[in-house]
Amino acid sequence: MGIGCPPGLSGDPERARRRLLFCGLLPVIALLVAGCADSSSSDVKDLSDPASAPVISLTADPPSISANDFTDLNWSVTNAASCEASGAWSGRKALSDSETVGPLTQTSKFTLVCNGPGGSAAQSVTVTVTAAPPPPAITNFTPTSGPVDTTVTITGANFSGTTAVAFNRKVTSFTVDADTRIFATVPSGATTGGITVTTGAGTDTSGADFTVTTAPPGTKAGDNDGDGMADAWELAIGFDPSDGSDAGRDTDGDGFSNLEEFQAGTDPHDATDGKPPPQSVLRGPYLQQGTPTSVIIKWRTDHPTTSGIYYGTAADALTADTASDTVTTEHELLISNLQPDTRYYYKVGNFYSALVSSGSAYPFSTAPTPGTPKPTRIWVIGDSGTANDNARAVRDAYKGYTGARGTDLWLMLGDNAYGDGTDGQYQDAVFDMYPELLRQTPLWSTLGNHDGHTASSDTQTGPYYDIFTLPTNAEAGGLASGTEAYYSFDYANVHFICLNSYDIDRSPNGAMMTWLQNDLAATDRQWVIAFWHHPPYSKGSHDSDSESALRDMRENALPILESFDADLVLSGHSHSYERSFLIDGHYGRSDTLTAAMIRDGGDGRETSDGAYDKPGVAGIPNQGAIYAVAGSSGKNSGGPLNHPAMFISLNTLGSMVLDVTGNRLDAIFLDDAGSVQDQFTIIKGP
Amino acid sequence: MRRVILTDKRWRRLLALLMAVCWAAPVTLGAHADVDARVAALDRQIAANLRNGELYLKRAELHRLHQDWDVALADYQRAEQLTPDLEVDFYRGRMWLDAGRLDLAKSALDHFLRIKPNHANALRVRARVLARRGDRLAAAADLSKALARLHKPTPDLYLERAQLLVSAGSAHIDGALRGIDQAIARFGPLVTLIQFAVDVETNRGHHMAALARIHTLPDVVKQLPTWMARRGDILLVAGHRKEAKVAYTAALTAIKRLPTQRRRTRAVVTLENRLRLLVTQAAY
């Protein structure tokens, strides 16, 4: 191996060849670098000149900070052999480097003393620490009540640099108009309570509560002067939101009134923008975060416009609506105050009407009241993002199987859009693949490694996090995680847990596992189903004995899940179907599985070995769980398929269908031709 | 016990050959095959467009996922030569972090951040480099800067910073807890944040502060048997034996109120047994 050659992996001849080629080049590179060093040899001679004293450049970036903040010191020194720090820092320093210092509580002087053949020199930089800015102070807000989307003016002091505004802890969008005034919008899901303003200097909560009211059907929130133009829009384009007469004016003289421009999403100050063409829906609509009383509906239009949803309990009587004045192509609205376990119909549109192009009203059903043992059908697909005939066949097989029964919710186990989870790939693999189901049934997803190529769970950015609106604050049950990367929700008597096995800390004491422990302790649902992308047991196209993400989830998540008697764990990643016996306590490599870990070694079928029975007998605190890899909904990639924990392993395209009814869970693996290739039943005790 | 291994009918005739290939191939054949196919596709695109730096960067990222550091590095360099504004030093730094070459990672990210000091992702990645080098305070400082610049920071990042500060020594514990309080102000009383604060306060012997933290948990969490028991544990260590017994007894009562099925889980049974011992055997 050449100088500085990175440590490599063994086994792949092509990679070894590339590595050898690279390492063979390294000595050449090293010689070139050495040559560059030689070219500066005259500088070295200058250094030895006894007449040349050290020259120090020392700067702070930024030179002025607030109390308890940090700054970077950067320095470079010539004509010196060594440097020592003094003042607010200490120790021997390199001749050229940078260092972050802080947190500083007072103005500090940093000195660098350097010695060389020509003598010594010192250079200092003073970092000015200003007193921490005063915390925000709310003195008043108006109006004091209103429905979601109401624009609230908050007055007070020290609002510059506001980082968050919340209504009863529900964070919302806001505009800092001045140090003394903020415009904030009552967010979806907000409840009556105090308004909180947070800056870097602290947080203040209003003394009085803001009362969140329900908007009567047919009325629009956030239009205090009642002129049909939303307050936020009026503020944004310089109109007076308390002047009801400006809607009829034509400010730019282009022949369209300000109200028409608002409805069309055009600029009322620009006479050249004309009237836009009719809107078309390019994506969706699709349902997110379905709960007993609410659902989020998202869609994309070809032109920016305001958003509206028109809905009701009959397709020809959409008597209620909810709307937003924000002009966008990426629409997202929450419908709240719905009745549990009720069928609704809806159309999407803009602030004023449904889009003509949206066609007939789409149906959806709200979830039943949590804990209610309603028969529930769940469709599960994994690694489905191929956007090809494989995925279409799996989809159509399920469509044929479920028929008029319909689907209550569906899960995507990650790698939803190959190869990188880009927005365009999501359009092909998800939105163009499952348009009907997306419109009618809430979809819940976990992040796969391919989705993660263009998304970051740390920053909650990328197409995956733009497309999905997942719970962060227990909006659909469970415990708040504060992140969409891992979350839980309830449907009927089932508690679903979604974990992230790709780009989140998977360690036993990390945030996700801490949350998992508490979330499981808090649920009293009868069934617990967990899902994530990387399978804890697999010998398919991935090997759970050798790959770290798979091993981490097995070693760290499974003991917690099993200690709370989880029933079913679903994952993908391996492009196959692998389904375990009823097992418990198997956290090691595949060759450590013992007979004692297999709670039931039968097939789980009532017609042969019998269903898996979890009677909940006192003294037998854990009855085992079933682990299924369902990663063949878009492609099948083979592999040894011989994990000893698995009852069955199939190199076949397909999906899983779960039916939960009371204390009974029936599961099947449905292949791409519509045949049932595996089935099992779990029966739980009281 | 029965086990079934089936294969698709279309592949039955090729079974023997396929099995031979599977056994001979690396264990991550599927993953690597996928990356290899995408590299091959990019090879073709690059061959048709030799001056497109973005294509080289895409291929470099695939080589990074494949842990082919040397080939990735060559593609990064080529991408940078062709398109200097591709932020290659960021990607290069991330690759060196993956490869465990921390000095090289820091150097690349330092260079990148000198040009783009507000790049939140680069700050976040450099924080992890610094943390693995043992420079916890500098790592925490980078995370602070990243948090200030992120549109949707996560509670996990706040926790990561707090963990760095706590591990940097007792002088930084107050700073760590201030950071946790910032996160609580932003996200609400998440159990992950409060449990961390409770652990920190308990470990440094600030038992009353730990109890005060527990009090801020949402009711649904505070009333869980596990948290009632935790409260008892802290009271016991703090010398408040009678109050500890009351807390343990309340936890036992809460367990009795759980649905039968949840009460019989291993976690709850273990907790119940421990509480019974504490209530009956401890000297109060």
What is the element layout, followed by pairings?
The complex is a heterodimer of chains A (686) and B (284).
Chain A: H1 13-39, H2 41-47, E1 55-61, E2 64-66, E3 69-78, E4 82-87, E5 91-93, E6 96-104, E7 108-116, E8 119-130, E9 137-142, E10 145-146, E11 151-157, E12 164-167, E13 170-172, E14 174-178, E15 181-185, E16 193-199, E17 202-212, H3 231-236, H4 258-264, E18 281-288, E19 295-312, E20 320-335, E21 343-349, E22 362-365, E23 376-381, H5 389-402, E24 409-412, H6 423-431, H7 435-440, E25 443-445, H8 463-467, E26 487-491, E27 494-498, H9 511-522, E28 527-531, H10 548-563, E29 568-571, E30 577-580, E31 582-583, E32 598-600, E33 612-614, E34 626-630, E35 646-651, E36 654-661, E37 664-671, E38 676-684
Helix pairs in contact in A: 9-10
Chain B: E1 4-7, H1 15-24, H2 29-48, H3 53-65, H4 69-82, H5 88-99, H6 102-115, H7 120-132, H8 136-149, H9 155-167, H10 173-187, H11 191-203, H12 207-215, H13 219-222, H14 225-237, H15 241-256, H16 260-263, H17 266-281
Question: What would your notes on this structure say?
Answer:
The complex is a heterodimer of chains A (686) and B (284). With 686 residues, chain A is of the alpha+beta class. Helices cover 16% and strands 35% of the residues of chain A. Chain A is built from 10 helices and 38 strands. In chain A, the strands form 8 sheets. Chain A has a 7-stranded mixed β-sheet. In chain A, a hairpin with a 7-residue loop joins strand 19 and strand 20. In chain A, helix 9 packs parallel to helix 10. The N terminus of chain A is likely disordered. Chain B is mainly α and 284 residues long. Chain B is 75% helix and 1% strand. Chain B contains 17 helices and 1 strand. The longest helix of chain B is centred in the first third of the chain and has 20 residues. About 10% of the residues of chain B have low confidence. Strand 35 of chain A pairs parallel with strand 1 of chain B, so a sheet runs across the interface.
